[in-house]
């Protein structure tokens, strides 16, 4: 894979400079690059002056606008108007993608009633069940299994070991990282009589006689419905709904080791970072960002455009647009004040004790 | 799968009403159902008046006791004495189960010394090791592996990609969701001399000279012992013990992405929700409920009937029957008081400052 | 597997006592052992007087130095100078290891260009891609997949279902537990214009007009580089870097369900316990210990020899050698003081109110 500086600048919607015919074969940090000959080579990413100090004369680089390629002695350069955005185009251009050969591997076990669109690449030991339909251009890694009746759109990429159970639907361009599980049974159990959890929810914490009871399983008849342009991280799990589907909206990106419980709905264009957990029947709005290790209680609403800082634990409804932090999560400004006050607590305690003493002395005098 | 209202009511140990011969083919939320013809159809779940508003005349519904089917114009109804409990029977009746065909798939690699009871369904690419024994009616999904000498009871369900290592035993009716790992090696290491962790446990936080040391592995010779009626969620991990087994009691249900460390014992009828972590050698009693993201320190005891709220972090022994919350976890009432006080902290700070000023003025006057 | 007391003592670099020719076939807790005949049997682990009370006369035991084997009526004993360290040697001696038969299973799909060193054991349904190189003595369990061009050293052990993507390198003696994923794509996205997260990082929490934007993917061109003697736990995930590799140093041990984000670097001889999450581009020093459920923010430094207590959330840089705890994590001593003060908060509130009253009365009198 090699394209010229001219073609790369064009692909990135950016401005080229210098020898536009040099060939680019990849991109790397400045310290991993060097001078290139007439045949070109690897382009350095130096989109801030800080990174540019490691540039060597005679090399090629991507710079931020306003930086001077001649000052670094470059042979060629591309100017990035918004560096992070340019990274998207650049990395896409050079990504060879996962290791899935074209065509259907002879070891794959595909039910005769399943339908795959044209251009499918299916790896060794894949298992596809009855009545599954998958659109065009699917890439399915080794050891993936897809259960009866599931329906996926065009251009999906399922990496090695992904589990898609029966009755799951997803739109176009779904990307799932290895060993993620979509459509496992919900975690839903009931006791013959009121359980301890139901009791403390009703009484806000106090309990009468504790009874021995066994848990009976509520089965999950709903599936999982996933929109277009969704990504799901490695070893994440999305459980099926009880009598309706668990839902993930268009454009939502989910990181590794994330848990979405049964009946959860997540809106469009959300970011759910690693180790987030959303308990059963919670509703997450559109464009919500949950940072790493955030937890969301069952059955609550998190409004559109909410941003929750790392490790926030959300126990109650959050209005749209709010930025929250902490355990329990509160407005970020409030949390900052609380943290400041908590750090001063030992000093408060001292001050209070001294004040008490002073007042006691005043009283004695009086 | 279709049964009459009469049969369904009987199966659910509930009262039927109206045209008891109508056929039920499934269950859904009221808005996803409608009027049914003489051939029957999907029954609406409307077990509280709130949900019942979406019922359409001419449909069938499951109602709470005391609700009036005629007021909604229903053709047939079933009255649920305890709605959540009825959900268990209802969903069981209509669950088609995972996608595992009867019989043993020809691609499965089963050691000749392994013994499977009658009625086994074994999916493609399953690997079963030497001396494994499995009871009657096993359902084993694609890509499952079971190591040498493991023993499972009757009617187990192992979904696609489950890993059961060597030397694991489990009782009847075990259900394991996809990609869970039972019997991985424990996380147990030792340094030639006292390590930093051992030092701060001894000194409660202070450290002398820091030494460079490498970690040496303590191997896990114990297995995992699991009782009857246990469920284990997707991508959860239960490590094997060091010289005795890690143990999970009868009737205990474990959600997705849960971690049980080496030598842990969990009692009977517990609920361990998603992303719970229990560190090595901790002992969890019977009927304990750990909500999502709860953490339990190594080597401590959590008594019978303890309920720990979401994201609680348990660092020390918890007596039986206690309801706890927070990080560090304390009695729920105490945590509630603490949270209230913390929210008022900034106001305390102000009040204290004003009081200090007042007293200073008093002193100056005096 | 059976060796004499003499051989075992020698292997453990410890002192034997009594009938040194007795054969040892395994080790267990005292209550699971008993008197042995001339053919030997299982040795009891009784390395503190507490455990020794369950010893039966006529049995064999490993004791701490200074304990008296005659007092317990033992036939033979081994004295452990540092009990935990001895456990390492002892358990290694008796670990039969995972269930992977020697040789290459005929169902494995290995690209002709891949090179495995001598002595490889490769289980059923393994998939190894083009240009993969693996050193001598590899043990690779069933259903493992290794992507194009990855390079592993000698004596690696990959348990069932492990996923190693393309472009991953690792040193000697790598051990990976089942279903772990190494080399999944990083979680890195960008919006065409400034996103809400970028905005609140810039403004420290406040937001202007909220815009609807979609996330564009930044692909991961970097791989993962892992040193010698590393272990990675079940269902853990290590993402590939963006333009350079994500890195894990020599001797570092990683527990189950741990997440290392893209571009993270972890130094040598670290311990990362279960459910730890390290966000993108964070840098962890050497000999760092992160206890269970610790979270590390993206882009920050955690210095050498830092120890973070259970569930600590690290938002900012941590200097070398510090022992930290809490959310947000602070010095352990400070956290202890804070916790003490927080528990006394309700009493502070009362004291403050009473003091206020007293002062008010004083003022009225004055």
Automatic annotation (TrEMBL), chains A, B, C:
Enzyme nomenclature, EC number: 2.3.1.191
Domain of life where this protein originates: Bacteria
Pathway participation: Bacterial outer membrane biogenesis; LPS lipid A biosynthesis
Catalytic activity: a UDP-3-O-[(3R)-3-hydroxyacyl]-alpha-D-glucosamine + a (3R)-hydroxyacyl-[ACP] = a UDP-2-N,3-O-bis[(3R)-3-hydroxyacyl]-alpha-D-glucosamine + holo-[ACP] + H(+)
Active site, renumbered: 262 (proton acceptor)
Keywords: Acyltransferase, Coiled coil, Lipid A biosynthesis, Lipid biosynthesis, Lipid metabolism, Repeat, Transferase
Coiled coil (UniProt feature): 338-365
Repressor as UniProt keyword: no
Subunit structure: Homotrimer.
Family in the record: Belongs to the transferase hexapeptide repeat family. LpxD subfamily.
Function: Catalyzes the N-acylation of UDP-3-O-acylglucosamine using 3-hydroxyacyl-ACP as the acyl donor. Is involved in the biosynthesis of lipid A, a phosphorylated glycolipid that anchors the lipopolysaccharide to the outer membrane of the cell.
HAMAP family linked: LpxD (MF_00523)
Protein name: UDP-3-O-acylglucosamine N-acyltransferase
Organism: Paracoccus acridae
Gene designation: lpxD
